[in-house]
Amino acid sequence: MQIGNRALLIGITLFLTATAPVVAGGPRHFTDLAQRIDAVRNLLGWQQDQGVAPRIIPEAANGSPSIDLDHLVNPSGLEATLRNFLATSPLDDLRITVPGGQARLGDYALGTGDSLLSHLLILRGDAFIYGHLAGSVVTLDGDIVLGAGGRVDGEALALGGQVRDFGGQVAGEIRAMREATAPVPSPRVSPLAALARSGAGLLGTFLTLTALGFGLVLFGKANLDVVSDTVTHSFGRAFLVGLLGQILLLPTFGMLVVGLALTVVGVLLIPFAVIVYGLLVIVCVVGGFLAVAHAMGETHARRRMARGILVEYPNSYRYMLVGLAAVLSIWLIWVVFGWVPIAGGLIWSAAALATWVLGTTGFGAALLSRAGIRANFTGRLVPPEAMTDEYLWATPQFGVPAVKRPPQGTRTDT
Amino acid sequence: MKGTLALVLLSLTGTAVAAQTPTPRALTSARHLTDQQSLRVLLDFAGGDVTLRPAPENTLYHYELVYDAERASPLTLYDATTGTVRLGVEKIRHNTFFASRAGTFSPTATVQLTQAIPVTIEGSITSGDTDIDLGGLTLKRLDLTTSAARMTIRFSAPTAGQCDGAIIRSHATETHLLQLGNSRCTSIRFESDAGPAVLDFSGDFPDSLRMSAEATLGTLMLRIPRSVGVRLVVDRWLAAIAQDGFTRDGNTWVSSTYATSTHRLDLDLKAAAGGVRIEWLP
Questions:
Q1: Higher local confidence (pLDDT), A312 or A355
Q2: pTM value?
Q3: Is the domain of B275 the same as that of B179?
Q4: Closest residue of B to A72, CA-based?
Q5: What residues of A are in contact with residue B26 (Cβ under 8 Å)?
């Protein structure tokens, strides 16, 4: 029992002793202090905590079960074993062998000047050590109290309790393992606040990408169109090239640096090459991703137009906006349903995978078209002067292919 | 078929929820100071917050740990023959892909070390907040590596004995080395990458202190008492250095009081892709 509980118990007992005639109608109901203590325990519902009568646990007939206290290397395992003993065997039938020691139930005190030349295992009780214990002491659901002058030659291990040192000396390790209360976590964010926070993050990302995309349309539309067309017409090829590009990114960087390091002039150029290489990679990844969004928006608009739906402002700004919204809508699903066990993980995986595929494709398209400089690498196999995109998309072709792939060798170079 | 599928999903959900239930445990491990001549401490923390302080009298070491038994396991091992104690916590690997991390908590550790005998501290600390106070310890050597964390090492009081050296490496860590003037180490080496760092040289500054510092991808703040004469040997790449109070001669930067001061700091500084700022303390 904890010291605090005892102090409280004594305090209440003394209080009841003083007020007993008033409370119980006279002192005749209490013949001695023990009865008063029992009454208080009953009153407070502590009867179940009064512990067990101290006694020695007999040794097992065949030496099993046995608890070795010579080497206390696995306290967790020892605690599990002891608790298993207590759970599976009634206290009166409990038999434990401690080689070179003794096992006891209930509180135990080793008095000043006394010596015990063995290990000591105490179950459901405290161990008060004021004398000399030549071995180790282990308690389960009890404290080890080391009084002034108390000496333990081995180790002191309290399982489900604590070691309280009032000036004792332990030659070995002093350990205590017990249940604890978890540290107070930071205030939990309500689901609604978490949703709003994730939503704000998604909105911020969307606005940032939109601003970048509009800037790209404004200042680099020609390159954007080429990369976007490459995505549209050579999606698979762009994805494979993007995948390969990711794999070769670091080796290429290494080769570049090593190659430059071979010459004196090259060494001077390394810092610039490193920066330029990094910038190029960023431009290709971000620009490629935006080009994919552009291609998605453009495809969506053209398909609507093909169905005869009037699309207002069919320009690159709209394509970019629609494409980015489409990409980020996947993440919107995660924002809303990400808290659901299992499904949340799956949604996150799907969103991450889709984003990676689109990013890889955009990166590959940027590589294939040399960031939009190589205009003829858009996968267009139809001469532009023959049929425009608008014709192909907007003209109903019932049962007739919109365009026939021309035979090999008729590709028009630009 | 639908029923079976629902059952499987339900059991998976139950497993995930069960796995995230924390089991808080507290461990205390200590040893009295008897006839030990020295103590070597190996810190091995794979997560959580760590605090290190001087121990009360008559204590060799005292280690307290509150941890989630579902996710972490304590490390305590003392070797009396070598006078070495290994303290730390290791993570228990779970498949947490589908499990929410709500309700879990990081381990919190407090280590106290004796001041009476020479102590060598080595090890690594990964993630979490680390607060180490070495003031008053009989520090023999310090060799620490931290990653992805926030670390403060302070010498709140002068160390006793002779410190052979201190090496501190921090990776992606916000590092504060405070009151280095109290360290009494013959040399200090600090390496930092991808993280800001503060080197504070206040304290009972010795006649001379030699230190080397490397900072990559991060700002380095030097806080130096005005009474200390400073000589910097700088090797930098894409790093700006504030030069208030210094006279530059090639790669060497010397403060105006270096020639006359009774307390001198010689600092070899390597900085890349970052900045170095100097703040003079009164």
A1: A355
A2: 0.63
A3: yes
A4: B77
A5: 176-180
